[in-house]
Write a structure and sequence with these properties.
about 220 residues; four-stranded mixed beta sheet; three-stranded antiparallel beta sheet; about 20% strand; globular; alpha+beta
Length: about 220
Amino acid sequence: MPVDLERDFALSSLPPHLRKGATVYLMDPAKGYYIDQKGTNGFICFVTRTEWEWGEFRKDLTMPISFDAAGAKAIFPVYHDVAEMRASGKFTARQIKDIVIDRIRKGIYKAPARPGVSYMLEPVMRGYPGNPTNNQIMTMSMPHYMFYAPYMDNADIGGDMAHGPFIPGNVVMGDKKEPFGYIIMPAGEAEAAKIVNAGSDLMKRLVAYKSYYKVKAGGM
């Protein structure tokens, strides 16, 4: 992905008022993530290319994500290490999945030290809409907020995907064993429409780069 497009795509995950002061990481396929823009407000953003839980490498998975300082310290190292291992060419996707699980169990990767937020407010993303038992991938528009909820499940918050905030089930680590769990809160309909409208130029640039970024009717 061209550097300017990747930078703008990563920054789109954040609310506009946080973008100028955020640290931006870009991907070097031969090495992993590197800092493109050094920030001042404690927030970071990047485009994830590998979701380790699914145990596969793809070239078309691109999901902009951001973290506050707590998430940058506790959660981003997993993305950083996975990207570095993939870039090295020394590991299969399944081996990387096993390594991450082992490091979580050993306490090398730990839950965030405090409550916090991860913004995923981009107008479009391409990733897995389900859990790691389904490797289907699609382009979708779903701006949302994610609040750190380690070791929690839907029963703790009365979560329901169809009616507000929810916690995705974890079939990898097991129920209530996920240090990187989130309460996901979709943006409201009016807010989501505003985000998509504001990001229309970015979406056109993405479609011009790869046609699979075109969102189908219904947001998917």
